[in-house]
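Chapter summary example.
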Amino acid sequence: MGPPPARADGLGYPGRPPAPGECRLDDHPILLRRALELHRRGDTAAARPLYEAILRDRPDHAQAAYMLGLLHSSEGRPAAAVPLLALAARLRPDRAVAHEALGNALHRLGRAGEAEAAWRRALELRPDHRRLTRELADLLRAQGRHDEATTLLRQALDAGADDPALRLRLAEASLSAGSFEAAQAAARQIPDGVPEKVGALRVEGDALLRLDRAAEALATFRRLVDLAPGRWDGPNGLGLALNRLGRWDAAVPEFERAAALAPARPEPLVNLSSALDRQGRLDEAVAAARAALDRDPDLAEAHFNLGVALAGLGRDAEAVVAYDRAVDLRPDEAEFRFNRSHCHLALGDLESGWADFAFLWSERRMRRRPYPQPLWDGGPVAGRVVVWGEQGIGDEVLAAGLLGDLAAASRGVVVECDPRLVPLLGRSHPDLTIVPRRPEADPAGLAPDVVCQAPMVYLPMYLRRSWDRFPDHAGYLTADPERVASLRRRYGGPRAGRIVGISWHSANRSLGRHKSLDLADWAPILSVPGITFVSLQYGPVDAAAGTPVRVDPEIDPLLDVDGFAAQVAAMDLVVTVSNSTAHFAGALGRPCWLMLPRTRGLLWYWLMGRGDRNPWYPSIRVFRQQSQGEWAEVIARVAAAIRDG
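The structure predicted for these 645 residues follows.
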């Protein structure tokens, strides 16, 4: 932001040389007139000593102070300008230009608070000053005060300043403030045919992406590309919208085009690495992330994407280095630490892995249940603990294996869980208080002797600090024995052979595609003779029609969890992909063969396996992909193992 042009009329003096009888100076009309003429001609070296001479004789000469302050500011000496402009503003407090110029100089010195005060005073005197309104809004946004910026800009627009530049600033500030609908509305009000329309389309597209309206964002970014084909943010926005729509193959060339249009900007390459990663093109994703770092070595997102791709390749030690750098640059970014924790656990470094978990579940970051007690610190408890679940039902089943340890470290445990788990946990832990989770806190968890609380996912950090803390258990959940026996009779019979339960799909929205198989892919397993196959799949099971897989209409794994546990316990063997079925089988101690992807799609507890075993569930045998996405050889190995008995 440059200073206003040198002028003599800002403080009430004529811009032209004063005519006889018109000069308002008592002592120095000729000297001032000569200084102004030299200043207007650009001969600041000659003008400066004249202003200084006036001020030596008249230290309270407002116009000389103002003009000399402008001169210093225009020549890059804001520190010298500030006292002169402050003097001018003090002597002529009713002149907006003095306060504006003072704010300009203060802003250059990084004295944002004082600059803001000066600019606000200038706007009080001249509320229709659009350029200064934009400058003040930019200052507020630079400090993260986006709501204040939107208020300032909206007031100016409501006062009648129908200025496309102000409206674009409003759209940008609303986007930064998280008011995505307001950002889109402001951007749409900018008419076609004005220069600001380009920026308006960019903001509108970004807002639509944040509103999860990717198809509309795609159309908006296409308009931006048509209007400004040489800008990089158009194809970059197209790529982001295509990514959101799952069209990663179409997103890649858009990011490549954006990177070519902006050879110095790293953002398109960061986005390119993400799109390549989604397609499983991991070596290319690594290359794109490294190229982004060549453009900006301190871009945290590029280090993070590099870590994601390296971890996908199974290069966990290298991924940790990349994540370390990302965390150094953005220490409060939870996702960076979450991913790094996975690599630490995969490498067997429990201490470092749990340290990242501790950060993620610190009191200021976690979504707390409405209990007033402090978080459990891992030590002995002179009272009871209320434990609550907040993840999926499989995670709660896994955490149930730690409740006995917590009970031993305290005087009792209140377990607030998914209501569907209450019968199963109550039977398995009769010494604990099991209550269903509801929106409000349960009275049992508010009892006077309940002195601390913990989310279930918090427990491993303290109760499984080292590998020798993992017990070699035979199961810790107890299914209803009568229902188990009834189901065994139903599925059995003289020709039933072994009863094998199978589950082939994960409903996890982000990882399910990496973990799931089509039931048709199971043909080598389902063709093994002498086996009664029973569906343990939750959700739709239409795929089982026309196959040898038996679907029991009396068991709904989603609604009747206690019945589902009995069904799992009735199996001779469970074969499943990574989903809640695996957790139930392992927690019930049933033999389970778990088919896992190589790297992508693994949740943290499966990363901790050693060989074909997993420390959480001794009854589980792991069959892992040799190559990411290749299930055929896994299916073949499982089929052969079933034949071998």
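To summarize the output: The chain has 31 helices and eleven strands.
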